[in-house]
Amino acid sequence: MSLPFKTTPTLYDRDFAAWAERQALLLNQTKFRGATWRVEIIKNRRCCKQILQDSPNVKPYLEEVFAQCYRDAVEQASAETELPVDTFPIECPYPLTEVLQSGFLPQDESEEEE
User: Fold this and answer.
1) CA-CA distance, 18 to 16, in Å (whole number)?
2) Total tally of structural domains belonging to the chain
3) What domain range includes position 21?
Protein backbone atom coordinates (compact mmCIF):
# COMPACT_ATOMS: atom_id res chain seq x y z
CA MET A 1 0.00 0.00 0.00
CA SER A 2 1.45 3.35 -0.96
CA LEU A 3 0.73 6.58 0.78
CA PRO A 4 -0.26 9.62 -1.26
CA PHE A 5 2.64 12.00 -1.78
CA LYS A 6 2.07 15.30 -0.01
CA THR A 7 3.73 18.46 -1.23
CA THR A 8 4.26 21.52 0.86
CA PRO A 9 2.62 24.55 -0.72
CA THR A 10 5.16 27.02 -2.05
CA LEU A 11 5.18 30.71 -1.27
CA TYR A 12 3.64 31.22 -4.72
CA ASP A 13 0.75 28.96 -3.70
CA ARG A 14 0.33 30.45 -0.22
CA ASP A 15 0.83 34.18 -0.83
CA PHE A 16 1.16 35.41 -4.40
CA ALA A 17 1.80 39.03 -3.34
CA ALA A 18 4.68 38.00 -1.07
CA TRP A 19 6.07 35.80 -3.87
CA ALA A 20 5.89 38.71 -6.35
CA GLU A 21 7.60 41.03 -3.87
CA ARG A 22 10.39 38.47 -3.39
CA GLN A 23 10.84 38.16 -7.16
CA ALA A 24 11.14 41.95 -7.49
CA LEU A 25 13.77 41.99 -4.74
CA LEU A 26 15.75 39.25 -6.49
CA LEU A 27 15.59 41.14 -9.79
CA ASN A 28 16.88 44.30 -8.12
CA GLN A 29 19.76 42.33 -6.60
CA THR A 30 20.61 41.01 -10.05
CA LYS A 31 20.68 44.56 -11.44
CA PHE A 32 22.94 45.60 -8.55
CA ARG A 33 25.29 42.69 -9.28
CA GLY A 34 25.40 43.80 -12.91
CA ALA A 35 26.38 47.32 -11.87
CA THR A 36 28.98 45.97 -9.44
CA TRP A 37 30.36 43.75 -12.19
CA ARG A 38 30.79 46.73 -14.52
CA VAL A 39 32.49 48.78 -11.80
CA GLU A 40 34.91 45.90 -11.13
CA ILE A 41 35.78 45.66 -14.83
CA ILE A 42 36.45 49.38 -15.08
CA LYS A 43 38.46 49.45 -11.84
CA ASN A 44 40.63 46.47 -12.81
CA ARG A 45 41.13 47.76 -16.35
CA ARG A 46 42.31 51.10 -14.95
CA CYS A 47 44.75 49.29 -12.66
CA CYS A 48 46.16 47.20 -15.54
CA LYS A 49 46.54 50.24 -17.76
CA GLN A 50 48.33 52.15 -15.00
CA ILE A 51 50.76 49.27 -14.48
CA LEU A 52 51.39 49.07 -18.24
CA GLN A 53 51.96 52.82 -18.40
CA ASP A 54 54.41 52.74 -15.48
CA SER A 55 56.16 49.56 -16.64
CA PRO A 56 55.69 48.90 -20.37
CA ASN A 57 58.02 45.89 -20.13
CA VAL A 58 55.21 44.07 -18.25
CA LYS A 59 53.04 43.81 -21.40
CA PRO A 60 54.64 40.59 -22.73
CA TYR A 61 54.05 38.99 -19.31
CA LEU A 62 50.40 40.12 -19.31
CA GLU A 63 49.94 38.60 -22.77
CA GLU A 64 51.52 35.39 -21.46
CA VAL A 65 49.25 35.08 -18.40
CA PHE A 66 46.04 36.45 -19.96
CA ALA A 67 44.54 32.98 -20.53
CA GLN A 68 45.22 31.93 -16.92
CA CYS A 69 43.75 35.21 -15.64
CA TYR A 70 40.63 34.48 -17.66
CA ARG A 71 40.33 30.97 -16.18
CA ASP A 72 40.70 32.45 -12.69
CA ALA A 73 38.01 35.04 -13.49
CA VAL A 74 35.66 32.30 -14.72
CA GLU A 75 36.15 30.41 -11.46
CA GLN A 76 35.36 33.57 -9.48
CA ALA A 77 32.34 34.44 -11.65
CA SER A 78 31.04 30.90 -11.22
CA ALA A 79 31.33 31.18 -7.44
CA GLU A 80 29.70 34.62 -7.33
CA THR A 81 26.81 33.79 -9.66
CA GLU A 82 26.40 30.14 -8.60
CA LEU A 83 26.45 29.22 -12.31
CA PRO A 84 28.38 26.14 -13.42
CA VAL A 85 31.87 26.83 -14.77
CA ASP A 86 30.87 25.30 -18.11
CA THR A 87 28.34 28.14 -18.53
CA PHE A 88 31.26 30.36 -19.52
CA PRO A 89 33.39 30.08 -22.68
CA ILE A 90 36.49 27.92 -22.20
CA GLU A 91 38.71 30.66 -23.61
CA CYS A 92 38.25 34.40 -23.41
CA PRO A 93 36.26 35.36 -26.53
CA TYR A 94 37.91 38.80 -26.64
CA PRO A 95 41.50 39.72 -27.43
CA LEU A 96 43.56 41.40 -24.71
CA THR A 97 43.68 44.67 -26.68
CA GLU A 98 39.87 44.83 -26.69
CA VAL A 99 39.59 43.90 -23.00
CA LEU A 100 41.90 46.79 -22.08
CA GLN A 101 40.01 49.33 -24.23
CA SER A 102 38.25 52.04 -22.26
CA GLY A 103 34.50 51.74 -22.59
CA PHE A 104 34.55 48.12 -23.75
CA LEU A 105 32.09 45.87 -21.94
CA PRO A 106 31.02 42.45 -23.18
CA GLN A 107 27.48 42.46 -24.50
CA ASP A 108 24.87 40.03 -23.31
CA GLU A 109 23.40 38.10 -26.26
CA SER A 110 19.96 39.54 -25.45
CA GLU A 111 21.39 43.08 -25.62
CA GLU A 112 22.93 42.40 -29.05
CA GLU A 113 19.51 41.49 -30.48
CA GLU A 114 17.91 44.83 -29.55
Assistant:
1) 5
2) 1
3) 16-104
